[in-house]
Amino acid sequence: MLSHRPASWVAVVPVKPLRSAKTRLRGAVPAAVHPDLVLAMARDTVAAVLACRSVARVVVVCDDPAVRAELTRLGATCVPDTPAAGLNAALAFGARGADGPVVALTADLPALRATDLESALAAAERAGRRAFVPDQEGSGTVLLATPPGVPLAPHFGPGSAAAHLRSGATRLDGTWPSLRRDVDTAADLDAATSLGVGAHTGQVICTVA
Ligand SMILES: Nc1nc2c(ncn2[C@@H]2O[C@H](COP(=O)(O)OP(=O)(O)OP(=O)(O)O)[C@@H](O)[C@H]2O)c(=O)[nH]1
Ligand SMILES: C=C(OP(=O)(O)O)C(=O)O
To answer: Domain MobA-like NTP transferase: where (predicted)?
Structure first.
């Protein structure tokens, strides 16, 4: 009997240059360590995505050479950003020409477990149409998925959960605590730490504790 093969997702992960990223998180660690923390969160996010059996390729959209070097080493493919075009343009660019279903994920998910992501991707595949996962608070978006040939049409930014719903995407309501825990503020970092962050983020937190 043939067993079901999960879809081969192309995952697109956008990362801002470290010097300008995660402004709301400033103060959570000393200023000199802030870029290390942002990079560590991106590394843990990408490592968890790469660990998903149903993900064929991770495309990182980023202009920062330090980020590109680290994430290429992990196994991601890095493509350049369009300066000043913003997050949604970066995601649309990263998704261009994908040869399978596409999933966009933010790079601030340091507690992400491959098992939660695998489960969310299976739910997205079952939905069979554009679908998104809201963040823990319910207002933002941590994941937007689209079947092959359907434009990603990302509406990330403030109030993106409502924007994705308005744009016709289906909301996926699984629990997936490690996926829904994005880190924008120091309080979010505490919450992610309580869930259990990945090794890179854990190491940065240890150095300042
Ligand atoms: N490539 C790229 N990535 C972006 C851009 N803007 C945001 N991102 C990434 O998108 C994800 C979600 O963005 P935010 O949570 O708003 O991150 P941020 O803009 O660094 O954070 P704040 O400065 O606190 O608003 C993060 O992984 C960011 O690095 C952009 O213009 N280009
Ligand atoms: C870009 C987003 O992230 P946040 O609102 O967490 O900055 C979003 O949720 O669409």
So the answer is: 44-145
pTM above 0.80? yes
DSSP, collapsed to helix, strand or coil, labels residue 184 as coil
Q: What is the 3-state secondary structure (H, E, C) of the chain?
A: CCCCCCCCEEEEEECCCHHHCCHHHCCCCCHHHHHHHHHHHHHHHHHHHHCCCCEEEEEEECCCHHHHHHHHHHCCEEECCCCCCCHHHHHHHHHCCCCCCEEEECCCCCCCCHHHHHHHHHHHHHHCCCEEEECCCCCCEEEEEECCCCCCCCCCCCCHHHHHHHCCCEECCCCCHHHHCCCCCHHHHHHHHHHCCCHHHHHHHHHHC
Q: Whose alpha carbon is nearest atom 18 of ligand 1? A: 22
Hey, what CATH class is 9-208 in?
A: alpha beta
Q: What digits encode the pLDDT tens for the residues 109-128?
A: 999 999 999 999 999 999 99
Note the pLDDT of residue 6.
64
Average pLDDT of every residue of the chain: 95
> Given the CA of residue 13, which atom of ligand 1 is nearest to it?
27
Residue 18 in contact with residue 67, Cβ under 8 Å?
Answer: yes
Is 157 labelled a binding residue? yes
Annotated binding-site residue? 141? yes
> 76 and 60 in contact (C-beta within 8 Å)?
yes
User: What number is the average pLDDT over the span 171-193?
Assistant: 97
